[in-house]
């Protein structure tokens, strides 16, 4: 395994121009970048906006927020917020904002997170098994694996990793931790490799298990569901939502959320079908994939899917 690097690797922003072009409908508007990272999208966005525009950048990673604070010192239109994006509505309300022009989400982890061994996201390095995006709060992957019920571990690896050997992996984890607690990424990768029977071509046997734990520890799918509902309430009519996702679990949530409401099949003989289904809250749906040049320059963009939609006039449901 390669030795730990001291310098955080850079992040190459995915679908940069496509998402920023799609997001801007008013150069003097107010925008949210829910996943600041190293600010690739935010910087291009700011370069395209007027002096009176505003941009709010969320990230729950302390290092990402450090980089956002540096940008805020250079550009007064930008405000960093060290919170999960699911607190967007509350944080913006606290700053006097009920509506925004556009929301961008570039989901998942950044290269500095995945490529910094001490963050514990990657099976490519041996390091403490952490996996928290926000290292200032919450439970680490090691804490959870050493205390959760074996059945819960199986379920998470199966549901979030779509891993068919989830039961064998959970059993191997339970057997190991009965002897000594699991604390390192290398250890977990080894346990999984011993439990997975057939390897997928070009994929490390630990890929699916690590993905599952990362999604669970960071509540990634719940976060996404919550922010989508908030974006629906906050984006003004004609404003845009742009979401880049990196795996099918995320993309399915976004796709279903943006889809027009469907009429109840049992009422399809009634002439009022459209009204029964309710008016669509999103229009002009687009799905964009990186081109060949981007994928060969940045292989991590390979699985990215950008979905863009324009908010209609239809009212959103009230917050629960
Ligand atoms: C793919 S990176 C974004 C990269 C960014 N667009 C850029 O160009 O530099 C995703 C970032 O979103 C953050 N993130 C993921 N889920 C989050 C959430 N629920 N709330 C806040 N930040 C989140 C991660 O910490 C990470 O820094």
Automatic annotation (TrEMBL):
<dbReference type="Pfam" id="PF01795">
    <property type="entry name" value="Methyltransf_5"/>
</dbReference>
<keyword id="KW-0949">S-adenosyl-L-methionine</keyword>
<keyword id="KW-0489">Methyltransferase</keyword>
<comment type="similarity">
    <text>Belongs to the methyltransferase superfamily. RsmH family.</text>
</comment>
<keyword id="KW-0698">rRNA processing</keyword>
<feature type="binding site">
    <location>
        <position position="59"/>
    </location>
    <ligand>
        <name>S-adenosyl-L-methionine</name>
    </ligand>
</feature>
<dbReference type="InterPro" id="IPR023397">
    <property type="entry name" value="SAM-dep_MeTrfase_MraW_recog"/>
</dbReference>
<protein>
    <recommendedName>
        <fullName>Ribosomal RNA small subunit methyltransferase H</fullName>
        <ecNumber>2.1.1.199</ecNumber>
    </recommendedName>
</protein>
<feature type="binding site">
    <location>
        <begin position="39"/>
        <end position="41"/>
    </location>
    <ligand>
        <name>S-adenosyl-L-methionine</name>
    </ligand>
</feature>
<keyword id="KW-0808">Transferase</keyword>
<dbReference type="GO" id="GO:0032259">
    <property type="term" value="P:methylation"/>
</dbReference>
<dbReference type="InterPro" id="IPR002903">
    <property type="entry name" value="RsmH"/>
</dbReference>
<dbReference type="InterPro" id="IPR029063">
    <property type="entry name" value="SAM-dependent_MTases_sf"/>
</dbReference>
<dbReference type="GO" id="GO:0008168">
    <property type="term" value="F:methyltransferase activity"/>
</dbReference>
<feature type="binding site">
    <location>
        <position position="106"/>
    </location>
    <ligand>
        <name>S-adenosyl-L-methionine</name>
    </ligand>
</feature>
<feature type="binding site">
    <location>
        <position position="85"/>
    </location>
    <ligand>
        <name>S-adenosyl-L-methionine</name>
    </ligand>
</feature>
<comment type="function">
    <text>Specifically methylates the N4 position of cytidine in position 1402 (C1402) of 16S rRNA.</text>
</comment>
<keyword id="KW-0963">Cytoplasm</keyword>
<feature type="binding site">
    <location>
        <position position="113"/>
    </location>
    <ligand>
        <name>S-adenosyl-L-methionine</name>
    </ligand>
</feature>
């Amino acid at each position: 395994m390669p030795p730990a690097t001291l310098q955080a690797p850079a992040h190459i922003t995915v679908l940069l121009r496509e998402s920023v072009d799609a997001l801007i409908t008013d150069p003097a508007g107010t925008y949210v970048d829910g996943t600041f990272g190293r600010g690739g999208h935010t910087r291009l966005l700011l370069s395209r906006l007027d002096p009176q525009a505003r941009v709010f950048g969320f990230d729950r990673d302390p290092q990402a927020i450090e980089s956002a604070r540096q940008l805020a010192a250079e550009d007064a239109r930008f405000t960093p917020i060290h919170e999960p994006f699911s607190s967007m509505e509350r944080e913006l309300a606290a700053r006097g904002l009920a509506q925004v022009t556009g929301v961008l989400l570039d989901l998942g982890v950044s290269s500095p997170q995945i490529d910094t061994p001490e963050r514990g996201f990657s099976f490519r390095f041996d390091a403490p098994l952490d996996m928290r995006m926000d290292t200032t709060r919450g439970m680490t992957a090691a804490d959870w694996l050493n205390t959760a019920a074996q059945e819960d571990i199986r379920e998470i690896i199966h549901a979030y990793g779509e891993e068919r050997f989830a039961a064998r992996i959970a059993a191997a984890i339970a057997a190991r931790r009965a002897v000594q607690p699991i604390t390192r990424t290398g250890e977990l990768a080894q346990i999984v490799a011993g439990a997975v029977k057939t390897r997928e071509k070009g994929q490390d046997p630990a890929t699916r298990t690590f993905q599952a734990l990362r999604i669970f520890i960071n509540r990634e799918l719940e976060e996404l569901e919550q922010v989508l509902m908030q974006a629906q309430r906050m984006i003004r009519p004609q404003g845009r939502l742009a979401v880049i996702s990196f795996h099918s679990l995320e993309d399915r949530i976004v796709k279903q959320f943006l889809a027009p409401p469907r009429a109840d099949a049992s009422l399809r003989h009634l002439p009022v079908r459209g009204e029964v289904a309710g008016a669509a809250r999103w229009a002009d749906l687009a799905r964009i994939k990186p081109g060949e040049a981007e994928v060969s320059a940045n292989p991590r963009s390979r699985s990215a899917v950008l979905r863009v939609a324009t908010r209609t006039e239809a009212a959103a449901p009230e917050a629960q």
